[in-house]
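ARCHIVE CARD
CATEGORY: sequence design from structure
SOURCE FIELD: tokenized fold
FIELD CONTENT:
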């Protein structure tokens, strides 16, 4: 058995490194050259094959790479100039581009008949895509049409266009199918003649296959559909299998009588005859019966998950049973005998249920329903489980108080009694509202609700509800038994009084430099002199010198005196005057934030009166300040005291909560409570948080309740009376606006119409939308919208405005100002496409910017009129913007005309590559410097020496001068061939041409090396100015000499190192190291003619002589 060993460069290099023998491990021959596994069986015996990977049967794998070869005849070639065939030809460039885009490998060759032979190799998908592109780009294209019925087009397209894509790839053609709204039957195929024929054949096959199919619709009464379908649709499934047609029966939930049959014509006809036979048979034997049963009992007749009815329909599958909601009848349809049996069974169920079941209705006020249900349904679920009944409580929108109980007669009565007791208990409960300033809510609740939990544990029957912090409400609601509520209210009142007593605060101005001295070390001075209160000094960087003291009123006043005394002592010690300016006296006042608006008054009238009377300056907190209740008074001391007293009187009056009522007719109630109580919220904000309560719907009471400060309540009553007078003086004005403009009038989310209602204090009502737009809509010309169509008034076009007469008229004017108008703008037809922009981007941008609709006529009309529709102001802005755009486009047209100036220059084609430069660098720079376009002649043009320059006249002349200067320089250039040792070329060129590029840039020359396989591999061409060429040649020769000498030294060094080696590659126990055979051994090396022992046979066989 032969062995193969591979010595890698790395191992050889390691061997050359001269590792001493005693340090290197010498492998054995078998370790260095392990043998391949041997076949130990007899020849031809497969049992001796190894059981490993080499011996297992390998399953053939289908190749993932395929090769396709096809030809393009000469007459169908797109590029027929064979002089350009090869690497530089257009066909080769096209193939290279296709290879890069598809990943397939393409080989191109020229046949004897001048046709193209193309071989494409790669994965199937890549080959098919490459083949399609090759045919479309290298082969002349023809086109043909094939006409098939319109309904077959969708089968050619296939699901998601997959069939069409497959067909195009398979035939290497482009197939254009008319749009669904196009009545044309013709499908256009573009490609080669062979591909067109293939595609045409495939399309006709698809159409022929569809011609064999048919679609029929049978309209049969829905009552007979179950008989045609059969139990579990078995009958219709058997029908489909026997006939081969597809039968589609609408489901029971879909109220349609139409049955659709599709398939082969013969199969459809057979299915129709079978279905009609079933229908005719059943139509004669079907009857309809009605059974009377109370509507509340229907769900019990049906049973849990339809068990009762399911049992009947399983026994009598041809019977259809239908329950009607809200009616006391059950309909049965089907064969006479089976319907009678089903009727008997249902009547038995009804009789049994009437004996076992009962129901009752209980009228409970709807406001108690949620308490009956309980948290997460706890109460009602308990009642259901305990008494084995069902309880139906109406949903909130029903506004019904009727609660229904169904189930066992005894359980129904017990559940009714418990629900009535719960309702009566809730009616006896009392609700009480406590006015607690919101700033105390957190203190009452405590950290993590600890304090309020103690209160609730003390009064477990009382529910205590605090308002949401976002509502900024002071009302805490108590609900429960009357006595418990009163006790809880007294307890909370005492708790609040303690909090209020300890929450008195004053702000004292003390110079900042005294703060540290007043506090003392570790707060010693403060603790000694001002105990029992909370004192807050401002932080270092705050810039404030005011010290806040909070606690019981008496303790706060005492602490204030102590602090001022300390400040005076520190001032005397530091010989600093501590005097308060007469005109800079400050006092502070606490008032709820909701009182501030009332204290200020409408337009500031109230606070201005206080300022005028006292001469003090009053500052209210800004929204972002932490102390929202603190009002600061600044001025002379007597003025500040007077203003403080007056404001305290006003606040005290506001704190005195009173409850009053007034009569408001019920027809006006809706105005106050609609829009989620918007009017009531405005009243509360404007009049110191006054609470206005309207009676519940259905109570027929016209008395409303107002609760709050006395002055606020009186002011709110006057305002409500004014609103009522406005409502009674209201009139309705109708405004006719075409329905198509209603959305524009409303604006985004109704913002425009909301502004009108606020500004003019009116109500605006839009009519219901009429989806039948055939009347009153703009006329159409073909598919064109005509903004000038005649308007026909309809009910859905009338908008109603309600309010005072004068305000309604003003609102009407404002509303009509929002109605879009249409204006014509004269714009030259040639500019329309520029105004529209790419894919309509230009026109969309203008419509969004000016909030208008711009209508541009269709191109075939060639009209110069563009219509702009929108609000008057927006239309005017849009017209101005449109005219500005027209001016810009006209200026661009003039500029294009100036830029289209052309000049030609004749240049020898051999200089064209030099003018273009490497990767177009030279010509790109000329184009950039002179802002021109330079066009070189295409291959095959008659005038190969003409270069065309286009742009502004002056720029083209400058560019021509630049090119002429470049050409004159090129004409002075010379070319010189120098022979360099081919072994040095790679080093002269450098990695990726870096070294040779550096040389060319240094000497301003062009250096060309020979192509592989050239007749003269050592010839290098240097082109440039004579002096530069000479210098470059000298440089190259120097490099050659240097690299050749380096090469010799390297070779000598390597061989000298090899000569020094004592041994080559050494292995142990090699076959050649075995002892040489003994040639004198006659057995191993027998001699001719020598006598042998009789018992021994010759190695050369039996003796012949």
């Amino acid at each position: 058995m032969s062995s193969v060993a591979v010595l890698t460069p790395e191992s050889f290099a390691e061997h050359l490194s001269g590792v001493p023998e005693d340090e290197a491990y010498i492998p054995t021959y078998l370790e260095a050259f392990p043998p391949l596994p041997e076949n130990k069986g007899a020849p031809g015996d497969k049992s001796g094959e190894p059981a490993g990977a080499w011996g297992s049967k390998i399953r053939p794998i289908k190749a993932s790479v395929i090769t396709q070869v096809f030809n393009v005849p000469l007459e169908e070639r797109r590029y027929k100039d064979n002089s350009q065939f090869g690497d530089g030809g257009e066909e080769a460039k096209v193939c290279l581009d296709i290879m890069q885009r598809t990943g397939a490998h393409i080989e191109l060759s020229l046949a004897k008949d001048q046709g193209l032979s193309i071989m494409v190799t790669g994965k199937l998908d890549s080959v098919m895509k490459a083949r399609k592109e090759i045919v479309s780009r290298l082969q002349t294209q023809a086109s043909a049409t094939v006409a098939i019925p319109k309904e077959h087009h969708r089968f050619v397209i296939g699901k998601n266009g997959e069939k069409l894509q497959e067909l195009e790839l398979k035939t290497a053609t482009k197939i254009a199918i008319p749009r669904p709204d196009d009545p044309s039957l013709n499908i256009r195929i573009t490609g080669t003649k062979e591909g067109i024929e293939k595609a045409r054949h495939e399309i006709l096959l698809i159409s022929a296959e569809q011609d064999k199919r048919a679609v029929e619709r049978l309209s049969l009464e829905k009552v007979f559909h179950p008989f045609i379908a059969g139990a579990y649709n078995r009958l219709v499934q058997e029908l489909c299998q026997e006939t081969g047609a597809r039968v589609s029966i609408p489901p029971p939930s879909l109220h349609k009588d139409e049955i659709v049959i599709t398939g082969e014509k013969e199969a459809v006809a057979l299915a129709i005859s079978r279905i009609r036979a079933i229908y005719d048979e059943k139509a004669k034997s079907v009857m309809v019966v009605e059974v009377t049963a109370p509507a509340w009992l229907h769900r019990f007749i049906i049973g849990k998950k339809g068990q009762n009815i399911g049992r009947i329909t399983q026994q009598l599958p041809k019977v259809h049973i239908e329950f009607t909601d809200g009616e006391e009848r059950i309909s049965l349809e089907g064969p006479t005998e089976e319907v009678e049996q089903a009727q008997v069974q249902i009547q038995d169920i009804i009789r049994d249920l009437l004996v076992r079941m009962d129901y009752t209705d209980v009228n409970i006020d709807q406001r108690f329903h949620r308490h009956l249900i309980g948290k997460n349904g706890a109460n009602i679920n308990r009642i259901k489980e305990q008494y084995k009944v069902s309880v139906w409580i109406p949903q909130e929108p029903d506004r019904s108080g009727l609660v229904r109980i169904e189930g066992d007669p005894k359980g129904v009565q017990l559940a009714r009694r418990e629900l009535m007791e719960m309702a009566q208990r809730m009616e006896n409960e009392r609700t009480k509202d406590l006015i607690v300033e919101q700033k105390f809510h957190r203190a009452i609740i405590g950290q993590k609700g600890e304090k309020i939990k103690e209160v609730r544990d003390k009064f477990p029957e009382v529910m205590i509800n605090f308002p949401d912090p976002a509502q900024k409400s002071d009302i805490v609601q108590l609900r429960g038994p009357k006595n418990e509520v009163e006790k809880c209210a007294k307890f909370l009142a005492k708790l609040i009084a303690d909090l209020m007593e300890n929450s008195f605060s004053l702000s004292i101005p003390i110079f900042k430099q005294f703060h540290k001295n007043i506090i003392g070390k570790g707060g010693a001075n403060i603790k000694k002199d001002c105990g029992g209160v909370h004192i807050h000094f401002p932080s270092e960087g705050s810039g404030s010198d005011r010290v806040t003291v909070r606690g019981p009123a008496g303790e706060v006043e005492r602490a204030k005196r102590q602090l001022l005394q300390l400040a005076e002592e520190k001032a005397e010690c530091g010989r600093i005057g501590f005097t308060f300016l007469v005109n800079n006296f400050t006092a502070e006042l606490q008032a709820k934030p909701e009182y501030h608006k009332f204290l200020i008054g409408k337009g500031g009238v109230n606070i201005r009166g206080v300022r005028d009377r006292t001469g003090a300056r009053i500052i209210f907190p800004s929204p972002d300040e932490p102390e929202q209740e603190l009002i600061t008074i600044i001025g002379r001391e007597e003025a500040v005291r007077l203003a403080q007293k007056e404001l305290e009187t006003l606040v005290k009056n506001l704190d005195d909560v009173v409850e009053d009522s007034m009569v408001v007719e019920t027809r006006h109630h809706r105005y106050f409570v609609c829009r989620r109580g918007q009017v009531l919220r405005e009243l509360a904000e404007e009049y110191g948080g006054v609470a206005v309560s309207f009676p519940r719907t259905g109570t027929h009471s016209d008395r409303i309740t107002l609760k709050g400060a006395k002055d606020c309540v009186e002011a709110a009553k006057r305002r409500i009376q004014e609103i009522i007078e406005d409502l009674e003086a209201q009139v309705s004005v109708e405004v006719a606006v075409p329905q198509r403009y209603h959305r524009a009038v409303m604006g985004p989310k109704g913002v425009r119409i909301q502004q009108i209602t606020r500004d003019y204090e009116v109500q605006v009502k839009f009519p219901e939308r009429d989806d039948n737009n055939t009347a009153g809509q703009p006329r159409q010309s073909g598919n064109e919208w005509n903004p000038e169509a005649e308007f026909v008034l309809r009910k859905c076009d009338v908008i109603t405005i309600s309010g005072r007469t004068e305000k309604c008229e003003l609102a009407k004017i404002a509303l009509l100002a929002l109605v879009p108008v249409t204006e014509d703008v004269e714009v030259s037809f040639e500019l329309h496409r520029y105004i529209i922009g790419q894919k309509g981007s230009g026109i969309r941008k203008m419509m969004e910017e000016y909030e208008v609709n711009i209508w541009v006529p269709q191109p075939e009309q060639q009209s110069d009129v563009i219509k702009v529709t929108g609000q008057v102001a927006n239309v005017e802005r849009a017209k101005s913007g449109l005219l500005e755009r027209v001016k810009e486009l006209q200026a661009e047209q003039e500029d294009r005309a100036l830029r289209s100036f052309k000049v030609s220059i004749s240049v020898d084609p051999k200089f064209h590559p030099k003018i273009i430069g490497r990767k177009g660098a030279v010509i790109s720079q000329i184009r950039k410097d002179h802002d021109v376009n330079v066009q070189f002649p295409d291959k095959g043009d008659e005038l190969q020496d003409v270069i065309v320059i286009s742009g502004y006249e002056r720029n083209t002349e400058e560019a021509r001068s630049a090119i002429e200067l470049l050409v004159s320089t090129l004409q002075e250039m010379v070319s010189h061939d120098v022979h360099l040792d081919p072994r040095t070329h790679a080093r002269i060129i450098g990695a990726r041409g870096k070294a040779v590029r550096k040389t060319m840039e240094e000497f301003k020359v062009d250096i060309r090396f020979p192509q592989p396989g050239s007749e003269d591999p050592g010839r290098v061409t240097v082109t440039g100015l004579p002096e530069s060429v000479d210098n470059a040649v000298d440089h190259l020769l120097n490099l050659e000499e240097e690299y050749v000498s380096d090469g010799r030294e390297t070779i000598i060094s390597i061989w000298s190192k090899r000569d020094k080696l004592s041994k080559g590659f050494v292995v142990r126990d090699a076959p050649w190291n075995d002892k040489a055979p003994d040639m004198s051994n006659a057995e191993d090396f027998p001699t001719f003619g020598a006598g042998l022992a009789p018992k021994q046979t010759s190695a050369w066989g039996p003796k012949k002589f």
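CARD ANNOTATION: Residues 1026-1060 form the longest helix (35 residues). The mean pLDDT is 77.
SHELF: design records, drawer C
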